[in-house]
Each structure stands twice: as structure tokens, then as C-alpha cells.
Amino acid sequence: MTETKKTTEKTLRRFTLSWQLALGMASGFFVIFIIFAFVLSQILKQYYGRLPETLYQWLGITILLGGLFVFGFAFMLTRYILRPVKSIKTTIEAFEDDPMTNVRAVRANVNDEFYDLVNILNRMIDRLQSLIGAQQQFVSDVSHELRTPVTIVKGHMDLLNRWGKDEPEVLEDSIKSSLAEMQRMETLINEMLNLTRAEQIPIENVQEVTEVGGLVHRVFDNFKLIHPDFIFTLDDDLTQDANVKVRQDHMEQILIILADNAVKYSLDRKEIHFALSQTTNRVEIGIQDFGEGLSSEDAARVFDRFYRVDKARSRAKGGNGLGLSIAQRLVKAYGGEITLESALGSGSVFTIRLPLQRENKNDQKLSN
Q1: Cα–Cα distance, 236 to 277 (Å, whole number)
Q2: Are 212 and 248 in contact (CB under 8 A)?
Q3: How would you classify the pairing of strands 337-343 and 208-211?
Q4: Residue 340 near residue 333, CB atoms below 8 Å
């Protein structure tokens, strides 16, 4: 509190930039006008001889009033020009006090260097707050989701410590269970890291362009190979290459998450349908299953972190409730959208819509 007061007092007493510029301009006016008055008086003396004292007095008054006028005008002008600096200072102080503050620097009406500086500062604060929020969310998720597997492993270690040394069955069972929980923790941590990265994609820095049609065909062929007991169909309505400004590994990750989800929840009718289509500005990818389906309540929450419709069955199938959340955040990070249509007992349809890239292909890095 004392340090804040001292800082405030120093701020009030300091020689501000407005005063410096105003005094500088006024001093410049005094020097220039005095030189001008001296030269003018010397010229007049040559023609008229000795000048009256009244003229010197008027020149002095003119210099004084002119200097005061220039000082006042310069002071007001600099305060007007430097208004964004005060807003920037207020914003930085607010961010220093509370990193999650909603205070932002006010943009000036003039499109000048201060306007650019304010935009950069606001973007930087938004980016930092996004990183801080992701860090806090990650810590919260880790502490919440790892509590159960850590408790299970600890329980098995206590069991081994008591009876495992003398009973081989207890030893084998505890080791298997502990290894399974360790594997689940490893998968969970990797998925949470992927989710955090998906939320921090600076799309303006992404230069890679992916051709969607070829990638969908490749994922389609891969799933046909690894799931021979399923029937996979593909409707490709693309008439030309559909390029999107998305990293290829991210695009492939999205497709694999949705296709894998469709396979997991297709119990009776093992059939998965892929669809590709294109509008004027967007490419659409659909992945449909004919499995369990979802109620409207579950469908509304299916993209939430760690949400599982049936926790017991989802965990048995290896799910942590993060896959669809990762897919949604990746799609949104690249300016697209992902939607779900589902009905209980009739299956689900996930549709991805991404903006097409229309730039010159010679300036792009195409992903094959």
C-alpha cells in the first residue's frame, strides 16, 4: 500500500511528456522570435535611426504573449496526441494487478502508430490471458482426473506391501491393475496436452495448406484396413481440390478422432459412412455411424471436457472424454465449425465445415 502511494506521488510530481514537448516548442518559439525581433530592429535602425522605446516594449510583450500562446497550444495538442499513451498505461497497470482483467486500451479514431500499438497490446493481452486460462484449466483437469488412478495405484501398492510378498496371485493382480492405471494416466495426460495445444493455435501464423479430399480418402482406407469387420462407404462429391489452411497432422487427428468414435459406439450395425462435399466458400466432411446414438441432453454436452455418456462403458472402451473436445477446439481454432446430429438408437452424424483456401497455390506449402 505504501509503495503504491509513493509511486502515485512520484507520478504526480514528475515532468510529463506533455510538459516537455510544450516547453520545448515554446522555447523554440522564444529563440526564433527573439532572433527575428533583433534582426528586424537592426534593419529598421539602418533606415530610421534610433527606434522608440515603445516599439521595444511592444516587441517584448508580443514575444511573451506569443510564447505563452504557443506553450498553451502545444500543451493541449500534445495531450490530445498522447491520449492513447494514458490508456495504454492504465491497461498495463490493470494487467499487472490482475492478469485476467477485462480492461483494454481504447483505440484512437486516427489510424496512426498509436492505433497500431494499441491493437498489438490488446492482442498480446488476449493471447497471454488465453495461455494463463489454458494453464489454469490444465492444472485443474490434471488434479481432478488423476486423483482416481493415483488412488487406485496407491491402494494396490499398499496391498502389495501387506500381502503381495507372500501371495503370488495378489502380486500379479496388483501389478496388472497398476500398469493399466499407469497406461490410462499416460493417455490422459497426452490427451490433455493435445487439448491445451489445440486451444493455443495461432491461426494467423499457420502457412500450411492441406488438400482435404486426398486426406479423407487416406483415413478412410486406413480404417477399412484396421477394422475389416466394419463396412465403410464414402460419398465424394468434390469436383476439384478442396484446400484448407489447416496443418495436415491436425486435420488427420480430427478425422481419426471422429472415425474412431464412430467405430467405438457401433455395436450392432457395424457400418460407417464418410461424405465429402463443397460449397462456394467451405468444404464439408461428414462421418456417420448407425450405433447407439445420443439423447438431446447428451448431444448438447458431448463436446465438453471429460464428458462421457456412460462412464463405465466409455472407460472400458478406452475413452477419457477428451477426444471430441480436442476435435472441436481444433476445428474452431482454424475458423471452422463442427456439428452433431444424433438420435437414440439411430446413430450419429458429425459434420465438419472449414473455410476453403483461395490463395495462389505457388505461394503455399501444399500437404500431400
Answers
A1: 7
A2: no
A3: unpaired
A4: no
Q: What is the Cα–Cα distance from 347 to 266, expressed in whole angstroms?
A: 8
Residue with cell 460419398: 235
Cα 105 to Cα 120: distance, rounded to the nearest angstrom:
10
DSSP string for residues in 157-183: HHHIIIIITT-HHHHHHHHHHHHHHHH
Contact 274, 232 (CB under 8 A): yes
Question: pLDDT averaged over the chain?
Answer: 77
**Which residues partner with 341 through β-bridges?**
349
The label of the residue with cell 496391498 reads: 159
Whether residue 26 contacts residue 18, with contact meaning beta carbons closer than 8 Å, is answered with no
DSSP 237-256: --SS--EESS-HHHHHHHHH
- Spans in the chain with pLDDT lower than 70: 1-19, 48-51, 55-56, 108, 110, 134, 137-145, 148, 163-166, 187-188, 191-192, 194-206, 306, 308-321, 359-368
CA distance 210 to 244: 5
What is the DSSP annotation of 48-66? HSSPPHHHHHHHHHHHHHH
Per-residue model confidence (pLDDT) at position 75: 74
Quickly tell me which residue has 481440390 as its cell: 241
Q: State the Cα–Cα distance between residues 354 and 279, nearest whole angstrom.
A: 10
DSSP structural state of residue 43:
H
C-alpha grid cell for residue 19? 510538459
Q: Of 346, 360, 364, whose CA–CA distance to 295 is shortest?
A: 346
Q: How far apart are CA 158 and CA 140, in angstroms?
A: 27
